[in-house]
Description:
By secondary structure, this protein is an alpha+beta fold. It is 44% helix and 13% strand. It contains seven helices and four strands, in the order E-H-E-H-H-E-E-H-H-H-H. The longest helix has 13 residues, at 12-24. The two termini are 19 Å apart.
Amino acid sequence: MKLRIFYDSQCPLCAAEMAKLSRCDKAGVIELADLADVNFAERYPHIDAQYANQILQGETDKGEILQGLDVTYLAWSLVGKKHYVAPLHWPMVRPVADFLYLKFAKHRHKVSYLLTGKKRCDSGRCGIS
């Protein structure tokens, strides 16, 4: 594991991105930790699940905590798809991308509904396939 991502499995768009990321992770370098897991607090006492539900968080294999688009950038880079997210680190794009990400994160269930017709997964968990 090079990166552990703490994600909202109840968000259809979030779950879909994690599923796509998992399919691209041929080397098994990404570990996914579901914020809705009943044992989350016990397994990850150093992560505030409520805060992680407001902004994506990740943890590197060296224990560094990353947030927001830094997690996304590293994750896609680790699975060989850096070109998907390279603009996120461009100086003129990054501040705008960070701002838009925070807006998306805050309203992700509404955005999911607009794009998928679901605010939350029917079963309470989307699962990763």
